[in-house]
Amino acid sequence: MFTGSTDTARLIQQTLANRSGPLVPFIAETGGQNVMIVDSSALPEQVVADVLLSSFNSAGQRCSALRVLFVQEEIADGLIEMLQGAMAELTVGDPSLLATDVGPVIDADALRMLKNHLVKMQNEATVLYQVPMKTLPPGHFFCARIG
Question: Using one digit for the tens of pLDDT, what is the confidence trace for 95-129?
């Protein structure tokens, strides 16, 4: 089993196909969307903890990072308020410091991709909250400032 880029999956697949011996099962997940669906039976505090962990660990640069959150309408306003409060407590900064919750993205290409996505989302969606940014060390920090 493998999770990663499509190019690497192709390379692994070709390598396996060209080797002698029995066939080796190969499963590659490349480019999926991690989705969370929350209904009224969920514990809001657990949802918030899971959303923050999945969304912001590794600056969201994992295939398992939460990308889409669907919330039952009856509980959406309260859950959004809790998420905004929890996000207000996050610290963006130097990942070598224990107090840092969210570090930089890996490189300029990743930062550019995020900025391009933000432009698209500004036209298609509404930003509900943005983690406050302070003076940051050198690095590729994504800051989704709107307006």
Answer: 899 998 888 998 999 889 888 888 888 889 887 88
Half-sphere exposure of 114 (CA within 13 A, CB side): 18
**Which domain range does residue 16 map to?**
1-31
Which residue bears the tokens 């989704």? 144
Look up the pTM and report it: 0.71
Look-up: residue for tokens 């930003």? Answer: 127
Active-site positions read 29, 63
Q: How many CB atoms lie within 10 A of CB 117?
A: 12
Is 1 contained in some domain? yes
28 close to 12: Cβ distance less than 8 angstroms: yes
Provide the number of structural domains found in the chain.
1
Residue 88 domain-assigned (yes or no): no
Dist. CA 67–CA 64, nearest whole Å: 9
Report the distance separating Cα 68 and Cα 145, nearest Å.
20
Q: Considering the domain boundaries, does residue 50 fall inside one? A: no
Residue 73: both structure tokens together: 């309408």
